[in-house]
Amino acid sequence: MTKNIKLNMSRRIRRTPYTSMVEKHGVSDFTVVNHMLLPKGFKNSVETDYWHLSKDVQIWDVSCQRQVQISGPDASKLVQKLTPRSIKKMETGKCFYIPILNEKAGMINDPVLLKLDDDMFWISIADSDILLWAKGFALGLDLNVNIEEPDVYPLAIQGPKSEELMTKVFGEDVKKIKFFNFRIMDFMGTKQVVARSGYSKQDGFEIYFKVHDSHFDSIEMGEKLWKIIWDAGQEFNISPGCPNLIDRIEGGLMSYGNDFTNENNPFECNLEKYCSPDVDHHFIGKEALKSVQKNGIIQKIRGIIFDGEACSGIGQPLPVLSDKNKKIGQITSGIYSPRIKNNIGLSMILRDFWEVGENVTVQMLDGKKRKGIITTLPFPE
Ligand code: THG
Fold first, then answer.
1. Is residue 217 located within the same domain as residue 342?
2. Half-sphere exposure in the Cβ direction for 219 (13 Å, CA)
């Protein structure tokens, strides 16, 4: 229906230093995240890209993962206010997945936090304006911090051959970077943050590419970085890519704004591991989270495997029904998995129906009904 309708570009939809590169590689679709372009597909199908990602290496323009930089004497105090996850023991060089809640314990982001120094953090955000939220809070509390969006453009190198490729470009020390850690590495005389992380279930790295010297143009340097990696990647069968929907859903990686919103608390999103209200520190939403804990939750994100014709990625939520035709949830990310050989999806599901093995019905946009079953996240191997 809405296929083939073009998005009208403007300055409000920001390009990245790699946009002209992905255009050269034949990008077919974009979405907009944090007011910036994110490629959604290239020449190959999502399925072809999925198999490629699981055996080779891909280069992704994920510049839309914007950094909210918090620095200054009160930086760690402010960061700690923003999340239930304790950063007391966090060391420089670590990445933490941190839920950010509003005062009602609703999720407003699920970023990756990087500790660059005792008084310097980056919050690598999902799609919502945390910069304004943090600034408002800092102003209200009169904290001694600086908050800005630096010129950082993350480039992800994902797939099992990413370590070999990254070693070729950045040197042997790449191999010492453990999952959710980063190191500062040299690129043409500039210092770059290189982390072992990424929005896939494969091995992978994220280069938080930053232009340090103002006489270098960020587009020129970004293109240089892309080209050097591209050329070095030829022997590893590198291809341009983007977060892969099949890999993401199978791996249970959630997407803010799609699979959960500020209407959901972190327990509903399976994030209790990072969100105990019984921690020493105060954080925004703590009282509300305590009452959620006391009262229990009524829904939770689950996986669903559902039958029928291969689903090619859904643009709108699909209702999930009980055997009595009552709406018990909706699939917010869904696609055919060639590994599971059936359609898979993520859905918030009401408590009485969230047990693994529960039979449900998925209603397609044309009204047709498909048989489904509740499963664990990540999806079974
Ligand atoms: N990388 C960076 N920034 C990001 C994302 C990213 N910002 C937006 C978005 N993605 C944030 N969401 C996630 C969700 C999951 C993960 C990372 C970012 C992730 N989770 C690991 C997992 O589930 O296997 C575990 C993380 C942990 O618990 O340590 O990787 O992708 N820079």
1. no
2. 7
